[in-house]
Amino acid sequence: MAAGKEIRTKIKSVENTKKITKAMEMVAAAKMRKAQDRMRTARPYSDKVATIAGHLSMANPEYVHPFMVSNDASKPVGLVLVTTDKGLCGGLNTNMLRTVTGKLREIDQAGNKAEVVAIGNKGFGFMNRIGASVVAHATQLGDTPHLDKLIGPVKVLLDKYAAGELSAVYLCFTRFINTMKQEPVMQQLLPLNAEGLKAKAKASHAWDYLYEPDAPTVIDELLVRYTESLVYQAVAENMASEQSARMVAMKAATDNAGNLIKELKLVYNKTRQAAITKELSEIVSGAAAIGG
């Protein structure tokens, strides 16, 4: 019964794994609800700032912010890559990194260079492995995004763009659609698209403002807040996507463990039955030989 003992040990091991994946599924479900609430709570602020920025784009002020000016296309391209710190969340990071790799290949084929800000340990490690130029990074963000941890790394690219050292800045993250679906997104962060801002403002007429203390101060602060809100919203969406993907992945792992346990028990029962049948046949054969 050596084989039977090995199968029993294997069954016990898979049962322990099933308990772990089930616990991780339940934890991810609880975190997912909080992450979704956080994501939805951040949307009104982001939408309002976008509306004001859209009105501002139609105001024709005497001062134009550098974020709304297109730079030389030959300059390097900036990428803000948002991934997770931990794994075990299905193909979430793989899909995002595949999209970013395609963009990097496209930039390289155009004879240009890319500078990356990595938010999340998985993206940071991947960019280092492929030899990308990582100018700043933020990892170990926890379950709640904090803007003070995000501003520093992202500001590196914002300052470079304002100084005319970058041609564009893209924001790469995973957008939360629903619990079962998340999609990788590559969104242009800079230069700010005037037409896109006007669409977000949902206004057909021009706006005008009185600036206090002056237009440069107000516009500088507003557009910086706007870009920060986009980054914060992207991280919040990515965290909601992470917990949803992890919950689904752990549920699939738990179900697979249950199926494997059933198969192993079936093999164990067949092995034990074969051993018992063999012993009975030996006893009957021995009795027949003695009686004969």
Global Rg: 29 Å
> What portion of the residues fall into strands of 2 or more residues?
5-15%
What composes the largest sheet?
Answer: 5 strands, mixed
Strand order of the largest sheet: 3-2-1-4-5
Distance between the termini: 31 Å
Structure explained in plain terms:
There is one protein chain. It is built from six helices and five strands, in the order αβαβαβαββαα. The protein has helices at 2-57, 92-109, 121-129, 147-162, 194-201, 215-291, and strands at residues 77-82, 114-119, 133-138, 168-178, 181-190. The protein is elongated and about 115 Å long. A five-stranded mixed beta sheet has the order 3-2-1-4-5, with helices on both faces. It is α/β, with parallel strands linked by helices and 292 residues long.
Features of the shown structure:
292 residues; alpha/beta; 5-stranded mixed beta sheet; 5 strands; ion transport; ATP synthesis; ATP synthase gamma chain; membrane
Q: What's the structural blueprint in terms of helices and strands?
A:
Layout: H1 2-57, E1 77-82, H2 92-109, E2 114-119, H3 121-129, E3 133-138, H4 147-162, E4 168-178, E5 181-190, H5 194-201, H6 215-291
Parallel strand pairs: 1-2, 1-4, 2-3
Antiparallel strand pairs: 4-5
Helix pairs in contact: 1-5, 1-6
Short description:
It is found in: Cell membrane; Membrane. By secondary structure, the protein is an alpha/beta fold.
